[in-house]
Amino acid sequence: MSEIRHNWTKEEILTIYNKPLMELLYDAASIHRLHHDPNTVQVSTLLSIKTGGCPEDCGYCPQAARYHTNVEGNDLMSVQQVKAQALRAKSSGSSRVCMGAAWRNVKDGEEFDQVLEMVRTINKLDMEVCCTLGMITENQAKRLAEAGLYAYNHNLDSSEEYYKEVISTRGFEDRLQTIDNVRKTNVTVCSGGIIGMGEAIEDRAGMLVALSTLNPQPESVPINALVAVEGTPLEDQKPVSIWEMVRMVATTRIVMPETQVRLSAGRTEMSREGQALCFFAGANSIFAGDKLLTTPNPDVNEDMEMFKLLGLNPQKPFIKKMQPQTVEASNSQYQALGEKPKWSRPEHKIERNEVAKVKAKAIK
Ligand code: SF4
């Protein structure tokens, strides 16, 4: 029951997902207790260090330049701004800062050097540092590792089959390639997905096959419920029910017993009772702070009240893995290579939100 398997099939995962709920919860909670302290939940703070203007076309994302949303773009934050936010996050109980930049892929140059400096700065605050910057090469992964990066986030989003219904500007295999590049370093992998994008339950299972058959499995797996943002192609999607979220969390816990399962976007729609069920089903990480990149999230004080109510404690940093050493830029072994990697641009098309486009033109 507690072994780590890398050969899960879609059929097996579907059988787990569709079990009677009480049985599913019991199995997931039992596995959870074998691998984790059930009263400890890791708290991460997500910072959008560069917002909006992204050239990609992820159908769920308000930061894609081609959609017409209310997101205001921002240039890359300064190292000092990031440090101030990290200190605030630390004082409110976060052990990890995850920095997100709305880029297709990382390009060597001044901006990446600035991100490396942010990584060094946060690592020196004795916090775990995570980045989500789009696709990265092996050399860039090594430079991040040297700076003291603890985790790299790169979500698979959905099953390989459904991926192309949501994103047309890159392929599923590009995601796997970036994860593989990160795996060539000692940086841990954070990779999960989103439910509620119109996918079938088979696609949810397909995504869990893709994640659980990675060897090693990702150290953290964020499970997001779609926040349907006006102006994106997925604006009309109905919210997922709490029961779907609980089933997804429980199934993730069962097929990836050691991973940290993170309740991510969509928590504002969940009651405390609903979140408590998710923790019982094996979720042991949350994103704190009133914004998740650009979408709303519960206030950190509300979360701490909920922790108190449920008897949960925030996890200290570096419990799972030692703090990485920080190498200063001047001592770096890995210099910028100025690579121009050929990430794919699949030909398939996704349906654009023409209504939003017309609406936005009319407002202008
Ligand atoms: S999810 Fe990331 S890559 Fe996709 S459009 Fe948004 S910012 Fe760009």
Automatic annotation (TrEMBL):
Q: In which pathway does it act?
A: Cofactor biosynthesis; biotin biosynthesis; biotin from 7,8-diaminononanoate: step 2/2
Q: Which UniProt keywords apply?
A: 2Fe-2S, 4Fe-4S, Biotin biosynthesis, Iron, Iron-sulfur, Metal-binding, S-adenosyl-L-methionine, Transferase
- GO MF term set: biotin synthase activity
| Cofactor note as given | Binds 1 [4Fe-4S] cluster. The cluster is coordinated with 3 cysteines and an exchangeable S-adenosyl-L-methionine. Binds 1 [2Fe-2S] cluster. The cluster is coordinated with 3 cysteines and 1 arginine.
Q: Would I find Metal-binding among this entry's keywords?
A: yes
Q: Which amino acid positions bind [4Fe-4S] cluster, per UniProt?
A: C54, C58, C61
CDD domains per the UniProt record, alphabetical: Radical_SAM (cd01335)
Q: Give the matching Gene3D superfamilies.
A: Aldolase class I
HAMAP family hit by this protein? BioB
Q: Which PANTHER family match?
A: BIOTIN SYNTHASE (PTHR22976), BIOTIN SYNTHASE, MITOCHONDRIAL (PTHR22976:SF2)
Q: How does it assemble?
A: Homodimer.
Purpose: Catalyzes the conversion of dethiobiotin (DTB) to biotin by the insertion of a sulfur atom into dethiobiotin via a radical-based mechanism.
Supply the name of the protein: Biotin synthase
Q: Which organism is it from?
A: Geojedonia litorea
Q: Give me the gene this protein comes from.
A: bioB
